[in-house]
Specification:
5-stranded mixed β-sheet, 5 strands, binds tetrahydrodeoxyuridine, 4 helices, Cytidine Deaminase, domain 2, globular, alpha+beta, single chain
Amino acid sequence: MSLLDEALRVRENAYAPYSKFKVGAALRTPSGEVFVGCNAENVAYPEGTCAEAGAIAAMCAAGEREIVEIWVLADSPHPTTPCGGCRQKIAEFARKDAQIVMRTLEGVELRMTMAELLPGAFDKSHMDKA
Ligand code: THU
């Protein structure tokens, strides 16, 4: 199962009546399972829930806890990068060498590691003296 195909497919289900900006995300865990998410907006909070957060919630609901690779697909002029909040959410479940692949519908691709996407991330080790 290709993460590209899965992200493209789930993007079609995005609920984005306010921004009109549909995003699809697909991630793979060490077991090989694939989880997908799309953005889902609402009238009170038009930014809604990001596609990446949806895929992460699906992964957690299935009892899995590690992201090896995640793809983010959107119809943007250049690859859409996860928002700040989503970077932290991905980092919670990803090693520093996990692959983040961002891609436009035209096929322009940007690949980064977790460490590149969120350098100096706040993590559990910062609370070691607490
Ligand atoms: N969005 C995502 O789902 N993922 C991203 O990486 C960037 C932004 C969504 C949130 C909102 O529904 C719309 O795109 C515009 O911000």
